Amino acid sequence: MSASFSVPPLEADFPFDIISHLIPVSPFREYPHAISDEKKGVHLSVKQYIPRNEPFRYEDTVPITILASGGVGFIKELYEPLFAELLCKARQNGTIIQSIWIADMYNIGESAVANRHNLGCDPAWTDHSRDLMDVIYHFRDKMTRPIIGLGHSFGCNQLFSLSNWHPNLFHSLAFIEPGIDPLYGMGTTIGWANAILKFKDAYSTRQEAETQLFRLHNAKAWERSVSERFREYGVYGREGEKGEEWAITTPRNQLVALIGRMNPTGVGRGPGGMADVTLADRESVPDADPEGHQLGHFYRPELKKAWDMLPNMRPWALYIGGNNSPAFGPVKVREERLRLTGIGVGGNGGVKLGAVKQVVIEDGEHTMTFDRNLYKVAGHVADFLATESKRWAEGPKMRQDKWLQKSLEERQSVGQDFVDGLAEEKKRMRLAQRQGKL
Known about the structure:
It comes from Penicillium atrosanguineum. This is AB hydrolase-1 domain-containing protein. The chain has 438 residues and is an alpha/beta fold. It has 15 helices and 14 strands. The termini are far apart. The protein has two domains: 3-187 and 303-394, Rossmann fold; 398-427, no CATH class.
């Protein structure tokens, strides 16, 4: 089942037309208990933002598509003020945004509401990476290249994982407070998970539900435009045992399951590492990493997996960090992440070649996409989009234009250079055989 409909924005001057989509995605999750029943299917709530009143497009301007992915427990609508500011600053730079796409992970926000009768409780972060590939395939006719990934927190991890599976999918990646960290959030995650479980999923009035939602996410310092969206989309009415009740769209158990996965017997944590791990252990905790950071019985394998893949990052990248962030802001982590990115096989060449850059916002918190710093964040991303749009026009687009000028026969042939190379290699091998070197 698929459905699409227009959504009226909260402000009359909001610069996008909004189309909401509900699409089916693969029911096959990474962990068997992520959903209740694979046969019942899984759906994703996706929103498409199309700029209104787009100015004249110059011939040398390439419209870009942005695919965004948000942080743990942050519903997609919270990013609308950031998108609006980004569009404003991009236009000032002469950058044309064709559309912005963002989806709630299957167990977050409107996706969680759509799947509420079929949720399990063992999600993998990379479930969303695979679902985003489904989104791209589903809307492939509406997503023109270049596609630029815009991530926040664990959404960066999800986009990066997708990028590693398909290195040529994204032209560039802009990561805000990236959840790519070998230290598992320095322990802040466990306290947060404990606090979350003290809340309820539903309340008797909307006002009470909204109040608890803001307490849950410590959202007092957020911009008013963000807070209004949290109230509008963060809770919903439903029929409870005692009549109508107001529920938080992201169930608390789903949220804590995303924060930490259980490794109750400490698989791979002993002195022997993985040497003594049984088949049963591997089935229950298939991704234990003796070198990965674990907090007691809890781990999140995606953090170190992504960290280990940093040298292979193909798209050019921008990191935006907050100096006051308790999550992914430590200087050592930031600098090592920057150093590792793109320097390995298949990578973009790293900082040395100008393919990776970093910006640190001095008073930035982990949630600076929602507070007064969202304007600074949007400015840095807009500047990055301007350079990357130009790089696309002068590089991949130009090469593709030349490619399309070739005849179909030429495009389906390996080419004369290939044939000449084979002949040269054959001569080299014969000479080596005569000299006894082969």
